[in-house]
Automatic annotation (TrEMBL):
This is Lipoprotein. InterPro entries: DUF3443 (IPR021847). Pfam families: DUF3443. Residues 31-71 are annotated as: Disordered. Residues 45-56 have a biased composition (Gly residues).
Amino acid sequence: MRTMHIAKKLKDWTQVVATVVLVSALAACGGGGDSGSSSSSGSTGSTGGSTGGSAGGSSSSGLPPSPTQQPIAATAANTVAITVAHGVTGVINIPTISVTVCVPGTATCQTINNIQVDTGSFGLRIVNSALNSTMQAGLPISTSTSGGQLAECATFADGYTWGSVRTATVTIGGETTTAAVPLQIIGDKPASTTPSAGCGSGSAENTANDLGANGIIGIGTALYDCGSTCANASTAATYSNYFSCPGGTSCTRTAVPLASQVANPVAKFPVDNNGVIVQMPPIGDNGAASATGTLVFGIGTQSNNALGSAQTFTTDGAGDLTNSVFNGNTVTAFLDSGSNGYFFNDSSLTLCGSNFSGFYCPSGAQTRSITLVGQNSVQAVANIGIQSASTLFGNGTNYAFNDLAGQIGGLAAFDLGLPFFYGRHVYHGFDLRPTGGTQAPFVAYAS
């Protein structure tokens, strides 16, 4: 799930609707990253197709060997366990963690489970209904420079989310932000306050059922979800995803300084704040009922988060590899844990019927290769496996899949979603330059 750049189009799909038909493609408007979601419960579909290999090792005919790297134990202060399972509504391939938020300056706190881990967006967003009444009332609402309540609209391909910007102290694993950070509370404002212009079209996506999770934690390469686009009054007037709401209503677009924008909370930790590592276990080619991995904070800051032999690709500010090559064409590639499949365009792959519209259903297992190219000119070929979505969904008890793929529409993009993360350690180094640092954004992986 990714918060889309201004002047860019939709970049990814997320969250399979496993019982119903469709993956919902979404992209939040705003300044950096791309985002999305959809929902359903329990997977159904026809059975059959190729048999899968064991987790890590030899694979089915037509599939590349599975990566074999294991996650470290989530026991250190700079770690937290990642779970892929049934979750809130039974959406497949949704990696989630637990996050604790506190009213600033108090001991009034709540731990919220099933927050989706999204390396393709930036900032913490929590569904209002996941908060208890004390937290709903206690988290202070931010104000715009003109004094109105500050709200944000994330616009998606099939709808939008709408809610206030508030502040909270955030704890994840054993790490706590040094101060309160801005976050979005989704669905806490009445539908009647939704801006009539500038907030997209379609239906509201303001519940846990809509998202398939109780919220989203965006931990991609950017520090803020909109950046200079929303901070600059001249561009914010047209493109800002932030709104000033005097008296809570009559919301109009507004410029928002960086310090008030929804922010990547990991970058606000006192230590281990320069990046993250998503570590997921290897799984079999036919999927698994669940998977448990580890989210590690910091890169090269502790003995458990060294970059090691991982190949490093510098990116643009949103973590995109804009000069990658697929089928002889230049594409923008991104490593996005918030997408529940691989999504790309390949006319040689058979699309599923209406039961799984938008997904690929080849008659046999397939392998495709993409050449990832960093801005530092580092290149590497990534091989991915693809099995029929209808075959994979034939087992209604599996929620983790490493070879699910679908179409991304008419875009020259290649979304390496959560299937790419299984059996790998995937690094996202933050762009520290906006805060005076020297680290440029990068992604890396080892398997």
